[in-house]
Amino acid sequence: MNAPLPRLSGGFAEPSRDSAHGFRAILNAMARPGTVLDLQAGHGPAPISAAAATVLLVLCDRTTPLHLAVSHDTPEMRDWIAFHCAAPLVAAEEAQFALGDWSSLQPVVRFQIGTAEYPDRAATLIVDHHDFQGPQSNLRGPGIRDTAGLALPDPRAFARNHACFPLGWDAILTSGNRVAALPRSTGVF
């Protein structure tokens, strides 16, 4: 039996179990902004982290347009996504999901923020290789008792995004096996 091509290997070892655990962790991260969780199920080619690979495997499919920022737009990533997710790759302005490190996702004003009629038509930014050890920003909003703290790559960009609520993009921060989320409903101060 032939071994799988290196660029197509990875994914989930046990798809049913791993996708359920991954979905639960992502849901918990979105419901509790500022909480950093372990997410170890998925694997993909460099440069994607295990946590970001899991997010793609759980949330992206052929109906979810995905933008790859330059930091993650490699032939190996394109092949891996085509094989494991089948998500169509699109320009930033058309994306429901976008994957890249923070600097490669700039300017974030390119991404959809929804409309008054359909605020759910906003993009979700998957910020990979995030520095969870950086200076903490204070967070307040749904899912947070009093306040929470989380390192953010650009607190002012997240504060401006929150000012658009109920419009705005959502963010999932990943690095290694760690994930946190910052929905647009979360205030940053």
TrEMBL record:
InterPro entries in the cross-refs: PhnH-like_sp (IPR038058), Phosphonate_metab_PhnH (IPR008772)
Any one GO MF annotation of this record: lyase activity
Domain of life where this protein originates: Bacteria
One Pfam match: PhnH
Keywords noted in UniProt: Lyase
Transmembrane regions listed in the UniProt entry: none
Protein name: Phosphonate C-P lyase system protein PhnH
Gene designation: phnH
